[in-house]
Design goal:
The chain has 5 helices and 5 strands. The protein has 157 residues and is an alpha+beta fold. The chain has one domain: Aminopeptidase. Strands 1-2-3-4-5 form a 5-stranded mixed sheet. β4, α3 and β5 form a beta-alpha-beta unit. The longest helix is centred in the first third of the chain and has 12 residues. The termini are far apart. Bound molecules: coenzyme A (COA). Coenzyme A (COA) binds next to β4, α3 and α4.
Length: 157
């Protein structure tokens, strides 16, 4: 358990059903994840390789969350770094990044990557992340997930 002047926090690598609901609420407040559906969030958590979370030990509530997708050799990609609004600027974001960058399974990985807005670059630079990727560019194909199309078709029929 991590003792601080604030309520003590507990690190967890698995989320309960209640935590997932709290994560879903946290997602609603962020620019990239507002509108995510609770059933999709359950699948996201289930299919992520590593979960990093801190909970308030007194209430059990989720205070901070991040997740990683990785092949455990070449690449690990960090997603959804979020500290609950009430717990920001207390060092929890630092605790998340410390936990990720020191995780034993990720010490063997060549690249730890993430994407973020320009204003977050100084935050991640503290852990050695760089935005200088030479000629590499992030590319994305936007598509309507088949799962959603299938449920629309089911409703229509
Ligand atoms: C970004 C976020 C995770 C930071 O968490 P936090 O708990 O408030 O941050 P911490 O208190 O651990 O701060 C650690 C250090 O980072 C700095 N920092 C915090 N937010 C920062 C920001 N947005 N930009 C630059 N530095 C920042 C702090 O000043 C502190 O620096 P210090 O160690 O020199 O004192 C949190 O504000 C958050 O959840 N924001 C909304 C979601 C989001 O934007 N996530 C990032 C997606 S890429």
């Amino acid at each position: 358990m991590i003792e601080r002047s604030e309520p003590p926090l507990q690190f967890v690598s698995r989320l309960t059903s209640d935590h997932i609901e709290q994560l879903w609420r946290m997602y609603q407040g962020e620019w990239w994840s507002g509108g995510r559906k609770i059933e999709d969030v359950r699948r996201v958590v289930q299919h992520s390789d590593l979960i990093f979370a801190f909970c308030d030990s007194e209430t059990g509530r989720l205070a901070a969350f991040a997740r990683v997708l990785t092949d455990f050799v070449y690449k690990a990609f960090i997603f959804d770094v979020i500290v609950d609004r009430q717990h920001r600027e207390l060092g929890l974001g630092k605790m998340l990044l410390d936990a990720i960058t020191s995780h034993p399974a990720l010490l063997f990985v060549e690249h730890i990557e993430l994407y973020c807005r320009d204003e977050m670059v100084p935050f991640y630079q503290k852990w050695g992340f760089t935005a200088e990727l030479r000629s590499a560019r992030l590319m994305r194909k936007v598509q309507e997930p088949l799962f959603k199309l299938a449920s629309v078709a089911t409703k229509a029929s």
